[in-house]
Prior knowledge:
The protein is of the alpha/beta class. The chain has helices at residues 4-7, 10-24, 43-53, 82-85, 92-105, 109-127, and strands spanning 30-36, 64-70, 75-80, 143-144.
Amino acid sequence: xxxxxxFLSKKEEQEIVDAIQxxxxxxxxxxxxxxxxxxxxxxxxxxxxxxxxxxxxKTKDSNGVLIYVAVKDKHFVIYGDIGINEKVAPDFWxxxxxxxxxxxxxxxxxxxxxxxxxxxxxxxxxYFPYQVDDTDxxxxxxxxG
Length: 145
């Protein structure tokens, strides 16, 4: 699979957006998914770049989480902003990554992303619970490059 369009169906994309909405329902945190064909730099560097391009570094509590996927390269990165990174256990992103990776290895791309979203949402809920004045600061739609 080398095309972004072939990675997820429209129905699967909507299920992922729904999972983001569920995960964000109880937190002030923000979760985004970015999918692109490939990257000319290493995946982590590109994920950080996309994080800033999507203005995820501008959330009120620095609690954005990006799941970046380079389809053709078969790489993905979970990148959390400083606010969440200061609070979660040091192995949190590794255990989240392992869950996504096990689903991806079996071709379950949608479920891998949903699992990662919901796990990130639980941590965000724990450390950044929803406040009455919270607003959804970023789009829940999947961005593509």
